[in-house]
Design brief:
Blueprint lengths: L1 E7 L7 H9 L4 E6 L8 H9 L5 E4 L9 H13 L3 E4 L3 E3 L1 H5 L1 H34 L15 H11 L5 H8 L3 H17 L1
Parallel strand pairs: 1-2, 1-3, 3-4
Antiparallel strand pairs: 4-5
Helix pairs in contact: 6-7, 7-8
Length: 196
């Protein structure tokens, strides 16, 4: 059986291109996941490595889909080929226990694997530089904070707390919310008053 493995690093990325390529290359069962290559526990890859057996083939589009470093790639490919599994990395070639025993193939594997690791490191470096430049230009990252309408019983409770008529705990009870939520809304209220 030919197993495919497709991975992207974030939920915003799509697997469609990899899945299409794997199917065109003969994969009959495809494991896929959206998880960073830096994460150790890749559930779908782990499940695939447990299921695959001698005589099967693992098919991936690029080396960095299954490994984040040359040493990790070599470990996975060696473990699989020693179990009788062929590993076909579409941008590197087909590796079997026989080809991995050949010194020229082993050298080629290591050179191509080193280039894949280098490429990944360069992408990471460029990404970090881009983030740094964006921050220097004032771009803010992360979720935008929500602004809440402070009204009704909540507004009344906040005004009483500000006037010293209620404690924050009593204000939360009065507004029928948790103390933590009340404190957040109180902080927002104070921020709004200070901005006016």
């Amino acid at each position: 059986m030919i197993y495919g493995y497709a991975r992207v690093s974030t939920n915003k990325q799509e697997l469609d291109v990899q899945i299409h390529t794997l199917k065109e290359s003969g994969a009959t069962k495809i494991y896929k996941e959206k998880i960073s290559g830096l994460k150790e526990n890749k559930k779908e890859l782990t499940n695939l490595l447990k299921e695959i057996k001698a005589g099967d083939t693992l098919l991936v589009t690029k080396a960095d889909r299954i490994a984040r470093s040359l040493s990790q790639l070599e470990k996975i490919v060696t473990d699989l080929t020693n179990r009788g599994v062929s590993v076909n990395i579409l941008n590197m070639g087909l590796f079997t226990v026989e080809t991995m025993a050949n010194p020229m193939t082993k050298l080629l594997f290591n050179v191509l694997g080193a280039f894949a690791e280098f490429e990944r490191d360069m992408i990471l470096e460029r990404t970090q530089e881009g983030i740094k430049q964006a921050k220097e230009k004032g771009v803010k990252f992360g979720r935008k904070s929500k602004t809440h309408n402070i009204e009704g019983a909540l507004l009344d409770a906040i005004k009483k707390v500000e006037a010293g008529k209620l404690s924050q705990q009593e204000g939360a009870n009065y507004a029928k919310c948790s103390v933590a939520t009340f404190k957040r809304r109180l902080k927002e209220y104070r921020g709004q008053q200070g901005a006016e």
